[in-house]
Amino acid sequence: MAKKKQHRQQQSATPATLAAARAGVGFATHSYEHDPAVASYGEEAARAMGLPPEQVFKTLVADVDGQLTVAVVPVSASLDLKALAAAVGGKRATMADPALAERTTGYVRGGISPLGQRKALPTVLDASAQERRTVCVSAGRRGLEIELSPADLAGLTGATTAFIARA
Description:
The chain is an alpha+beta fold. Helices cover 31% and strands 28% of the residues. The longest helix is centred in the first third of the chain and has 11 residues, at 2-12.
């Protein structure tokens, strides 16, 4: 029995969960069977966990004036690129090339976590997260989410908070 439990813990260990554990913050992980045919990874996660989409956040990588920047917004919303640029003191933001985002963060698309990235990037967390006791973000792999407080998420990522999402 102990081996099965240990094996399960090892399977859920990712750079994101290891970063949260090392920091000593409280968190929970949620795993679900990912369907490769699904178009929206975030909506799939919310549905699979039975959580409102406003509590599940997606991690997007944008290019703001030549600097890769992470945006964390609810899966029920889209990223407002102008608001993101303004939040980091930039002028123009575009979505980053997916291959560059993967190489830089160390994660695959649909599994990019704001935590434990290969290279720490400036991060902006949508201010709506502060309305929640906990939020879920990718734990670094499709089909695995980490749930933690918005304050802990911001602290672990060094995120600034701003309204960067639009309905």
